[in-house]
Amino acid sequence: MAQDSKVQPTNSGSVAFSVTSLVTGVVAFLTGWIFFLSIPVGAVAIVFAAINLKKGYGGKGLAIAGLVTGIVGAAFGLGVLVLAIIGSLNAGAPSVPQPGYYTY
Predict the structure, then answer these.
(1) Region at 47 (left for phi over 0; alpha for psi -120 to 50; beta for the rest)
(2) What is residue 62's predicted lDDT score, i.e. its pLDDT?
(3) Is there a domain that residue 102 lies in?
(4) Residue 5 counted as domain residue
(5) Tell me, what's the pLDDT at 90?
(6) DSSP string of 33-82?
């Protein structure tokens, strides 16, 4: 009678990935106007949430919340980056005087 001494790890109790996803997602959401911070932090939140949901670890609700806040934070940061690029391109544009307006 041989006993199997291998212990199978349970993945259902681990919530580290989901908590990490939620924390980084909230940071990305709150710092959305700082694009150079929110885009990478949002990407980290998305990756941790995807790992958690794919592996079936515990804290599915936290992982979904981290995924949503990470996507929203990264998208907001990306929008701010696009607006900053558009604004910098238009900053040097010459203004065209309107008809009837003369400068002396």
Answers:
(1) alpha
(2) 94
(3) no
(4) no
(5) 75
(6) TSHHHHHHHHHHHHHHHHHHHHHT-S-HHHHHHHHHHHHHHHHHHHHHHH
CB 49 within 8 Å of CB 71: no
CB atoms inside a 10 Å sphere around CB 37: 16
The tokens 């709150």 sit on which residue?
30
Structure tokens at 34: 């700082």
Model pTM?
0.75
Q: Examine residue 37 and state whether it is found in any structural domain, yes or no.
A: yes
Across the chain, which has 104 residues, the per-10-residue mean pLDDT values are 58 80 96 93 96 91 96 96 88 65 62
Joined tokens for residue 22: 């939620």
Domain coverage including residue 28: 16-78
Q: How many domains does the chain have?
A: 1
